[in-house]
Amino acid sequence: MTLTHSPAATANPDLDPGQSAGSNVEHGERVRRKDGDLILTGRGRYLDDIELPRLTHAAVLRSPHPHARIISVNLDAALRMPGVVTALSGGQAMPLAGPVPHYYDPAVAGERTAEFRCLAVEKVLYVGQPVAAVVAETLHEAEAALKFIEVDYEVLPFVTDELAALEPGAPRIFEDWDDNVLIRSAFAEGDTDAAFAGAAHTLREEIRIQRYNTAPMETRGYIATWGLDGVLTFHGSSQNPHPLRSNLATSLGVPETKIRVVAARLGGGFGHKFHGYPEEPLVCVLSKIVGRPVQWLETRSDSMLVGAREMVHHIEVAFEDDGEIVAWRNLIHANIGALGSMAGWGMSFVAGMAFPGPYRVKNYDVTSLAIVTNKAPWNGARGYGKESAALAIERTVDRVAQELGLDPVQVRRRNFIPSDEFPYWTAAKRLDSGNYDGVMDKVVELAGYDALRLEQVSVRGEGRLFGVGVAFELTPEGGDFPGDLVRGFDTSTVRVDPSGDVRVLTGVTSPGTGNETGIAQVVARELGVSVDTVTVYQGDTDVSPYGYGNASSRSMNVGGGSALLAARDVKERLALAAGVLMEDDPAALTFADGWITTTNGHRMRFSEVARAVFTQSIAIPAMNQPQLESTRTYGPDNLLHVPDEHGRVSPYPTYPNSGHIASVEVDRDTGVVRLLSYAAVDDCGTVINPTMVEGQFFGAIVMGIGGALWEELPYDNSGRPVAGTFKHYLMPRTPDLPEIRIGSQVTPSPFTILGTKGAGEGGVAGAVACIANAVNDALRPLGVTAHQMPLSGPRVLEAINTAVPL
Amino acid sequence: MSTTQPPGSAHAHDELPSSTVTLIVNDQPRSARCPDRTLLVELIRDELGLFGTHAGCLNGDCGACTVNVDGRITKSCLVLAPAAEGTTITTVEGLGEPGALHPVQEAFWEKDGFQCGFCLPGQLFATIDLLDHEDAPSDDDIRGALAGNICRCTGYQKIIDSVRCAAERTARTPD
Ligand code: FES
Ligand code: FES
User: Fold this and answer.
1) Which of A276, A280, A683, A766 lies at a CB distance of 3.0 to 4.6 Å from A745, suitable for a disulfide?
2) Where are the domain boundaries for CATH 3.90.1170.50 in chain A?
């Protein structure tokens, strides 16, 4: 298979309305979600719904200490408990499974790395690290037996604060490192020092984003079972089943051909179901030992161990009287916990890379430090550091407006990259296309911005704290990271059966977002058939071509793109056959509504021609393409890894963007924030199915609101995580939210075959920043800022209490 | 989330205080023997094989385990199975089936009131319950009715649109 790069202008039929005529499903059609009837009637099957004969259940004993040496593990008493089939310690697991391969190994980026076993062997590095496991007939029995495992620990000094971890005498998380810094990523352009020296104004802020994750409603789970033929079947709630298969092969020392990973229907992913978790190889080892299927399911409190996002921005901005921002300086400290093998650490890189957002700022100097501590490791979380960058960027833009007495919308307009300057290079990105002013116009109108400002004047006049927040989000998407199994292209097979039914086998997966519906639409449109005749197969490594699954809003760009190319191949073969059968030029045929029609009005059913290809090819010599199947790989242009003349590379190909405006009222006595209105407009390029794209945008916005106001995974002074249920980890609920109004603008990417830019992640970052700006705008009359997220009642009250009484 | 108590593991049942629970589920008489500590959600899923009822927290917080017990919507992770003796239960499987969806399910499909679908039992039962009591619910009524059900995917907006759509339709077709 070859990677197909499509020259922008020629390979983008969706920019040419002439070519879309005659297709059955236009892009932009609101096709209902595939399998909706199954899902709505409780017939969708998720991981915990898989029934296997003789299934056993694993429970995991986790470290109660943030940092300790394991002296001994005694399993004897646990093994005598009712229902227990086996128990395993880290030492026993050592020869059975190698280190858990990293989702993306920092060593590939030339950085330090560390190895993590499925069960800790010598040391535990965080509360919650797996130490031993029990397999029993029932989960209750397995859990009960955990209490009888005796582990002797020598408790070690620990550090959970990122600044303390940087101190020279701090406890070392990894003994062979000479400090606690995993990676220092730097992004710079221009002459920042000179720009600061020459600027009319400068200001600095410290902005903190808290540790929180994505909390999908379905937690993780895995089931391993070994066949008599030595084949391991691994059912998992995984966003990336093929790379997971490769990593299991490495870890278990089994040929990759002897492993089949089947990703079950996911109850949400959002990065939480990226791989690299210790329990993945663990269940395989346990199943091998007991000779029966073993299932492990993450409890809700286990899921709240997984960290993400915790960063502090020490940020400075230099600007002129008219609101022009001339330079940014930012030092980011990311508290990534004890690293682990999951996908989290890269968020610290992206938080720096995302600068300077949507703004034409030619001088900046951004450094991001990924600092390891004795907190549980991160995994990827929707936003992937872009939300952190947006918060810092957008808060400082608002501070600039405030200092100058300018309107925050105007300051943004003053600094936007103009539409005619794309593609636009920054230190580590080439932005594909955009019309940021257009998005801003639309959201200003949708939100009724001017009326909100008038309302603010009158409400403030009553002494109430009413704030209007504005934010703009730029979301790098579809990242390609060579050197490991995190790539920006993907592969699809399109097959037409003799019945004329169409199958699409694709390497991208759906965590419940609906990309299968969009991919089916793309193929149906190309072949001129009903979308109901197209079935999309995802997630089974024995069925779909090798692919990289679900991440970085990539699914339509590369799953849709590769399926489109494969569909074109198949269409060509069908056209060849139809041309022979109807004696017309294959190039002149139209495919629409399930018919293939000649220029002079003859027509055959799509299904008839498909059947003829199977039944008549070769026998009719001109019909010499007997198989209706093609596999194609597609990656966007604009994945730039060979440094240009300035040494720049760009791992992200597309840049959706969105504008957000919210209004809030803050209760002066309690600090509680009430969200009054929310409007947002996004531009993610060509839209295949507006219903699905809207759904992604709504979900992302509310995830951003949740993170801005409530969701948090705090640690106590003893290094233990505090939140273990949704009574501590507060998710947004319906009464917390106003009607959310959204709009869209379409600026196609010139670098993707469909013109898409990626939908799914976009909205989180804008919402976090927008709410932070709204709350701070509300607090303005008090002369205080609240820059420690989330802006929960107590934290806002703390800020209010710093106000100097008038 | 875990709710598993495989039917085959009889020995475990013998050692713990157990009862036979008899009830009507989706119009069928059913009975199962299970340890007294079994949660209703475990009975429904693992003994009765009705996997449409989901467990998102086992703590009463999320609503994914919602069923209707004797006419009342109930979080089945908060009820012990023996306490459901003699009850009549409807699970999400009993609301409708492919090709014959309940009108509320239809509205959720048309308005795209779900993504991954994990939270649906709670959203659907809460909506049906609301519309049973309120022909023309206000926005506050709708938000209040759904408050016990967390959805991570949708941001709720299309769920609320779905409820409005279902309300309009039910209002138009008096029974
Ligand atoms: S599982 Fe019952 S409320 Fe969450
Ligand atoms: S649709 Fe996924 S949790 Fe609601």
Assistant:
1) A683
2) 48-156+216-303
CATH 2.60.40.10 fits A489-634, yes or no: no
Residue A790 gets which letter from DSSP? Answer: S
Contact B117 A698 (CB under 8 A): no
pLDDT at B5: 44
pLDDT tens, residue by residue, B46-57: 999 999 999 999
The residues pairing with A596 across neighbouring beta strands, listed in sequence order, are: A591, A604
The predicted model gives A174-197 an average pLDDT of 97
Start-to-end CA span in chain B (Å): 39
For residue range A568-602, list pLDDT tens digits in order.
Answer: 999 999 999 999 999 999 999 999 999 999 999 99
Residue among A33, A214, A217, A702 to mutate when testing ligand 2 (max atoms within 8 A of CB): A217
Length of chain A: 806
Q: What is the pLDDT of residue A806?
A: 58
Query: Is B143 in Cβ contact with A737 (below 8 Å)?
Result: yes
Q: The pTM is what?
A: 0.95
In this complex, the residue of A40, A215, A737 whose CB is nearest that of residue B101 is A40
Residue A267 alpha carbon, nearest atom of ligand 2? 2
User: Do residues A749 and A12 make contact, with C-beta atoms less than 8 angstroms apart?
Assistant: no
Superfamily of domain A48-156+216-303: Aldehyde oxidase/xanthine dehydrogenase, a/b hammerhead (3.90.1170.50)
User: Residue B26 class from Cβ within 10 Å (0-12 exposed, 13-18 middle, 19+ buried)?
Assistant: middle
Residue A165 in tokens? 């971890």
Answer yes or no: are the C-beta atoms of A158 and A67 closer than 8 Å.
yes
Helix (H) or strand (E) holding A525: helix A515-527
Cα–Cα distance for residue pair A676/A485, rounded to 1 Å: 44
A300 interaction partners in chain B (CB closer than 8 Å): 1, 56-59
| d(CA A52, ligand 1 centre) in Å | 24
Residues of chain A with CATH 3.30.365.10: 383-480+645-799, 489-634
User: What domains, with CATH codes, occur in chain B?
Assistant: 17-94 (3.10.20.30), 103-170 (1.10.150.120)
The response to whether residue B146 sits with its C-beta less than 6 Å from ligand 1 reads no
Nearest residue of chain A to residue B91 (CA atoms): A42
For residue A488, name the pLDDT band (cuts at 50, 70, 90): very high
Interface test with B, best of A217, A270, A515 (most B CBs within 10 A): A217
- The pLDDT tens digits for A222-272 are 999 999 999 999 999 999 999 999 999 999 999 999 999 999 999 999 999
For the domain spanning A383-480+645-799, the CATH number is 3.30.365.10
Q: Other CB atoms closer than 10 Å to residue A290's CB: what's the count? A: 18
Please name the amino acid found at residue A101.
P
Q: In 3D, which of A297, A108, A308 has the Cα closest to residue A219? A: A297
The answer to whether B14 contacts chain A (CB < 8 Å) is no
Asked if A203 contacts A404 with a C-beta cutoff of 8 angstroms, the reply is: no
Look at residue A4 and tell me whether its pLDDT is greater than 90. no
A439-462: average pLDDT: 98
Q: Is the ipTM of this complex over 0.90?
A: yes
Burial string for A242-254 (b: 16+ CB within 10 Å, else e) reads bbbbbbbbbbbeb
Token pair of A35, please? 């399998």
Residue A227 has phi, psi (to 5 degrees) of -80, 165
Question: Which pLDDT belongs to residue A26?
Answer: 56
> What residues in A contact B157, CB-CB < 8 Å?
698, 702, 739-740
